[in-house]
User: Fold this.
Amino acid sequence: MEMVIVAPPTPGRLEDLRRRFFATPLQTLLSLISLAIMVFVVWKLLNWAIFSAVFTTSGGPEACQAAAGACWSVIAARWRIILFGLYPFEEQWRSALACIAVVVMTVLSCIPAFWTGRRIALVWGTGAGLYYVLMKGGVLGLPHVGEEAWGGLALTLFIFVTTCLIGFPLAICLALLRRSDLPWISRTTGLIIDGVRSLPLISILFTFAVVLPFALPQWMVGDKLYRVIFGSALFFSAYQAEIVRGGMQGVPKGQEEAAMALGMSYWQRIGRILLPQAMRNALPATINQFVISFKETSLVVIVGFFEILASGNAAYGTGEWRFAYVEVYAFIAMIYFVFVFSLSRYGAFLERRMSVGER
Amino acid sequence: MNSTQSPGAAVHIEDLDKYYGSFHALRKINLCVQRGEKVVVCGPSGSGKSTMIRCINRLEQHDGGRITVLGTELNDDVGNIDGIRREVGMVFQHFNLFPHMSVLENCMIAPMMVRKRPRAEAEATARGYLEKVRIPEQAMKFPGQLSGGQQQRVAIARALCMQPQLMLFDEPTSALDPEMIAEVLDVMVTLASEGMTMICVTHEMGFARRVADRVVFMDGGEIVEEAPPAEFFTSCRSERTRQFLSQVLGH
Amino acid sequence: MISLLRNQRVRNTLLQVLYVGSLSGLVLACVMIARRNLAEQGITSGFDFLFKSTGWDVNFSLLPATANDPYWWYFLIGIVNTLFLGTVGLMLATIVGTIVGLARTSSNELARLLGRTYVDIFRNIPLILQVFFWYAVITHLPTPRAAHEAFGMLLTSRGLYLPIPNVGRAALVAAVVAIIAAVALPAWLGRTSRLSQPIGERLGIQLTAAATALATAAVILAFGRLPDLPLLDFPALQGLNLKGGLRIPPEFSALAIAIAIYGGSYIAEIVRGGFKAVGKGQMEAALSLGLSPWRVFTLVRLPLALRAMLPILANQYVWLMKATTMGIAVGFTDFFMIVALTINHSGQTLEAIGILMTGFLGINLSLAAVFNRVNKAIALKGNQLRG
Ligand SMILES: Nc1ncnc2c1ncn2[C@@H]1O[C@H](COP(=O)(O)OP(=O)(O)O)[C@@H](O)[C@H]1O
Ligand SMILES: [Mg+2]
Assistant:
């Protein structure tokens, strides 16, 4: 006898679609609602942002205001103030180069080949140094530009980078102190960390910007920018310290004991055995903390800095562009989005890779 | 057996007491190990074997009594502790290799950092000892890529690279699959035959018979019995020892 | 001396004394310098200023406030404002987050895509930017003359105007409590009587409870109403301004909307994580018992997911509570802004900072305490798991 094997009919396109989106009445309803929302939002957005938008400055603000869609002319007219703030016009190329230096530095430090303490320090040291020389000038024939004139995206990046540069080593110190065997040291450090973590960042920034000058001797007061950066670094380090400590707890106790039995000193054990492993454990959470910290640099606007948000407010706040606030905020949001989204995607990628790689 | 003080002793423990909180983990331990001597320590789980040998290189701090290692007393002097740890090698139950370093680096790091040996010399020494534990070809691999037996042999090589005068083993084979135990024991037998002073916590009674000069039986934080292997296995005095031996040898 | 320094005990003691000593010395020195500097400006330290009147106004307050009120009253106003904004914000955020989170875990691809897009966009834009944006949107709304109108509500650049019952304050509070009870009572009854009663009977009890509570609310409103006025007070244009109704100022709405949207994107992820943590086995077991998908959801998936997400949710709520300090960016008089204004006007810097820290410590600790209780109450008991 011959058996005829009947293959199940391969579902056609329509059948496939039906199964995926209209299998049950509830599914159908969900699909329809989702589809309606999507079509509505996408259409509205496209219409506003592209089809009925004005892109050129030729017509001036009046023509722009009359248009039904977005008025991107405001960006074309004001992008320099948003990106560079009040930095002298002829020198703004330096500001742009400095931003690129920071971006290159960030990208480099995402490459595993640079993940040794020394190389990371080198990359970040070079990046920050390059930024500082370019922005501040006064050497190599670059005219001097004081910190008070820095602004826009350039200032945001500066605050972020210096926060991390100061905050990261500080976080490691705090984490080490907190796990110390000496009870008073670990308790006091715990108090500091938990205290800082219970406060909102704004209150710390405010304290460092406004209150600290009263409480320091004259010679220590320094520039407000650096005080605020220090406050933000302290806040960063309190959170990062707990992340690092979590990473250290993930390193088996035997590792340090083996190093001890080999006669290695405290600093050798920490530097060569504990930290390299702890930082690996803490990597995804650390990147997440960087992401959060980058978003939080925007808070310095409150203590009166001309970073990207303030320069955005200025870009539409004066004179003829007063109506174009949505476009300006959309532009700034886009800048933040590009940085934050790519960094957090990278973090998610690392996390996946590590959870697969580890056995 | 041998509790008179002698200047040549590698380890001399007198009236050692150790507490974990209120728990009395070691009670008045007395033990003397001569240079070149091989001592096997056995006893039921929780009897304080690990605690005792970890006191010898100060991984645990003792609360009473005196410990003298290689002529130096272990006390609060930080310099003494560092000096002793340099001269005493230790092998752990769970290997404790550094997973982020290659096998070769595992063996080189301590000589370079602690003994300040130049890299080339440290590497030569490390390769020499890897040869000796019969895994020279694994030098560039990472610990995670090796079998348990291979890892434990690397751990032995790592300790030997410091050229210690005394080796401590804390159940080096109890985390291994049966077929890997032999390869590690072989290395330890070779080491013993070369005259290394060794204190071994192990339940491998075959090894004890072949290598040990003395077998020490511990229970409840005390040394219950101490005898040369021939005597220990045939005519032990205490009931507890007999019971333990029947359990270990029975299977 | 050298040998003493090599002694471990001496070293440990010395290190601890040095560390704690230098830190407390630092703090002490700062306080001393600050006191001296402030004294030079003629500001006497101490908490006497709490009982002086402030001389400035707050733009938002749930409690009665005038410029003659003392500082301690203003601090209280600030804390109440912070808690109020925080509570409203996190309730809205929870609603948004639950909807988006459920969309993200649903079996429908389109809904998942929608939820994911929402989270990706709003998580990655700083909260304060969103606050600025909504504040700009609201303050660019038409003036009261050209207000958008819907259901008696007016949407203007001065804020949102809602109709409000013409009743006394006490009656209003009582009515609100009764309405909350009308919602909460059936839910609570549903929980306690769980499966012990047939569905129909339970529904009846729940409906009766809700109806009773609502009726109570209506009675309170009817008797508490102010004489000679219509029951509802509608906002209306008088001259250039709006009179009547309840005004929700733009500062508050901007903050609440931004916190709801931004916090919602975080809570959505927490909700998703919670549902992911529920094992497939438990759901399959429930389905194989013949329970309907809805009951599997309410009886198995939801309770288990809630337990998994609660600790993370607690952290998020604390964060949102602290985020209310962004009020100062748009001029909402939350606790932090009151502190900042106090420092500006009275110069009592150290005291105000101390009050600020104590206040937030208190808020954090009490939130943590509440969540710990809830967590303990709903934690799976050991025998429940087995039995
Ligand atoms: N870090 C510690 N804290 C408290 N108790 C401990 C600690 N380490 C060991 N102990 C206790 O001391 C006793 C001896 O432990 P150990 O020396 O590890 O036993 P063995 O190695 O013989 O199995 C055990 O009862 C154990 O529970
Ligand atoms: Mg043991």
Remarks:
- The pocket of magnesium ion (ligand 2) is lined by residues B 49-50, 171 (CB under 6 Å).
